[in-house]
Amino acid sequence: MVVTQRRRQHVDAVLDRFFGLAKSRASGIGPRYVTLWETLEKNSAGGKRFRPSMVLAAYESFGGTDSETAAYVGAAFELLHTALIVHDDVIDRDFIRRGGPNVSGSYRDLAQTAGIPIPTAEHRGLSVAVIAGDLALFNAFRLLDRSGVAGELRERLHEILDEAMFASAAGELLDVDFSLHPDPPSVDDIVDMERLKTAVYSFETPLQAGAVLAGADDAAVQALGSFGRNLGIAYQIVDDLLGVFGDEGDTGKSTLGDLREGKRTVLIAYAATTEQWSEIEPLFGDPDLDQQGAKRIRALLEESGARRYAEALASDFANRAWEHLASPSLPDSVRAEFRGFVSTVLERAK
Amino acid sequence: MVVTQRRRQHVDAVLDRFFGLAKSRASGIGPRYVTLWETLEKNSAGGKRFRPSMVLAAYESFGGTDSETAAYVGAAFELLHTALIVHDDVIDRDFIRRGGPNVSGSYRDLAQTAGIPIPTAEHRGLSVAVIAGDLALFNAFRLLDRSGVAGELRERLHEILDEAMFASAAGELLDVDFSLHPDPPSVDDIVDMERLKTAVYSFETPLQAGAVLAGADDAAVQALGSFGRNLGIAYQIVDDLLGVFGDEGDTGKSTLGDLREGKRTVLIAYAATTEQWSEIEPLFGDPDLDQQGAKRIRALLEESGARRYAEALASDFANRAWEHLASPSLPDSVRAEFRGFVSTVLERAK
Could you tell me if A136 and A224 lie in one domain? Predict the structure, then answer.
């Protein structure tokens, strides 16, 4: 198992220390700044620590034993994740995440409680979220330094985190552009966007960082990164499938949200090339889509072959991930650690 | 003189290399990402390189001779500045800066040209600016590393840049909150905000970074930072005075903008405590304020003593800066470098 209680606790300890220090520093400036840091901490605390767990899993599978240092590197990826979702919510004008108010939402609510009219309160929420995301972002890089790594190793880890952010920004840009065009992008475009926006910082680079920290050679780091990249894409496609066809009881995800939002996914990109699209299109992206309309879209997506296509594509990327995991550059201990993970990702789709 | 052609050129050379590398890397991802980097470069190119010049001036005044390394540290502050103004424009929903489109504006215009309706085009512009600001922000810290400094020195410079961003975020938060309240904040609140939002990253920390890079001792770094902090506040107050009373021909700044925007400044904070406020208030912050209305506000600000108060306050902070510059911890070479600068800052107000 990649995500374990022990790994979570190591990373949480680092993040607790980090936020504690920041709040203490902020108290020298003023109570409102402390509140901002508390809000950021609360938002970060809601996460599953998925990315840090991957740093630790890769690190340990290569024989690494210094959990403390590895936990710092993991925490750095968690802060990057926090920065990206806080800013993503600003871009999407979302005030809710994980079923509760995010940073924008908390500050909008505070303003509303103080009697500020809604449009101004929302703008204030979004403004504070821009600031909060900035704080999380640069501190991701600062946390790498606080791990105590030095010299060449320090530089390599920074380059990996740099790559994570460089790719994420490119992916976010593509996603923003997709929403400008009335016609859905191609399947290739969606896969490219999902690779850049999510797979690189969520899978590929955390795995590589863990491997580099443990002293793995270049070929191994490369192979593990490729494994992560492909698995990450598979994961995203499965996520998109669950967002439409999943069991809400199981997944905790709404199966109306993506359809109402008009989210560009592999399912939609494929369906747009079929004759069923003329029936799907008027319903898709309707903010008031009801269960009946959603049911209709699902049936059409099945009919068009889009569901089957997406499932096959996810399988395809998972298989590619397998092939990279099988690379002779990777020790058996790494295969042992991540073998189950590939299955877990695919199982979610069933 | 602090800002010189030579210093500008050194810093520009570093920034050219930085953006060149980034664009080259981006071309491996796609043309739209290259365009984003080109836009960010263009926006950065419009700056006066004021903050980098201060890094270099401090560095050289302490006897530093490695202009190359110092230019990297200077460039780091310029990227931080770029990040802050790009995100500040997102928060203020500004599409213009320095008389032309900023990042938000460029992307809004591109979208409009493509036939996208204005509200969506504006949202797209602001969204891309969030991404662009993120890229500039983390790269400010990366540039410090590319300077080649190592060990303790590297860590100290990172701490200084960290402090610059930590303070700026706090200042921006205060500024955002000011706009929520109908009543203007106190003079002390404004000074506090201007110190955090601008003086720390524009004056205090660049000077300290230059001094640290040159090997200055702690007492000297402290004194120079205090000089910078106080001078920075004086500069901001003068800026606020010019924004209302300046000669547009001289300053290039509109003297209607701040009044129309309802910008919270020391002038306004003071005037709000006087009997003239009841006449100023209805005019202040009116987006359609005309030259006559502006003339009336100026007369009232003079009558209330607000102008005289602000001028005296700017002088007061400049004098405090002088006192710190006179500290025995600072070598005469530092005083020689910055003596004229204090006068320059104050001269602007006349």
Answer: no
